[in-house]
Amino acid sequence: MALKESIRLQKYLASCGIASRRKAEELIATGKVTVDGRTVTEMGIKIDPSEQVISCFGKPVTQKEIFVYFLLNKPRGYITTVSDPQGRPVVTSLIKNCNARLFPVGRLDFDTEGALLLTNDGQLAQKIQHPSHQTNKTYEATLKGIPDRKKLALLEKGILLEGKITAPARIRILARKNRNCLAAITIHEGRKHQVKKMFSAINHPVLDLKRTHYGKLKLGTLATGKYRQLSQIDLKKIFL
Length: 240
Ligand code: URA
Description:
This protein is α+β, with helices and mostly antiparallel strands. Helix content is 20%, strand content 29%. Bound molecules: uracil.
């Protein structure tokens, strides 16, 4: 597992499968362990495996990374990064008791809520985001006004957005809300503010946006701010 914080040396050695924690203490006490080339015999020192080289019997000790996957129902008012220089709340802070170096897969705007995957698996993240996989993402958008079929057909076919035609989309009007409506839109591109820009282009701006699915993996009844760990079966649904 990748660790983002300092950890006690004996715990780190044990987590790398070198020995039990007790045996690891013995290895330290008997001078078999070095930190950045310096033999450490003192017990309980904390190390940062991402910054320091830990060796045992002269061989570097590394942790085998265990990949974890979470589906979060991102609340509005959270930024989709691992840190924010402006001090705004970041999505990774919502996942508790996880030492893995998580990052969000793709982005949701600060004011958008809904399905957000977080993982430490760079390869899977790349696969989801790579255009060749055309991973569908479905959003529910509250729109100002009610677009007619003709306008929706334009969006479905593709419109010119910042010099490039958007890929085909699927759109359904789910409900009417007074003079506005709730629409479901499925796209496989991930351009910045894409859904908002697409509906603005037909003069029906988005008032509220929520991502509900990655492929066939759905947010379901997950409450805002809550998350669940995903299984391999869940992960396969992303590509359906
Ligand atoms: N499209 C948008 O406009 N915003 C999002 O957050 C996601 C998709």
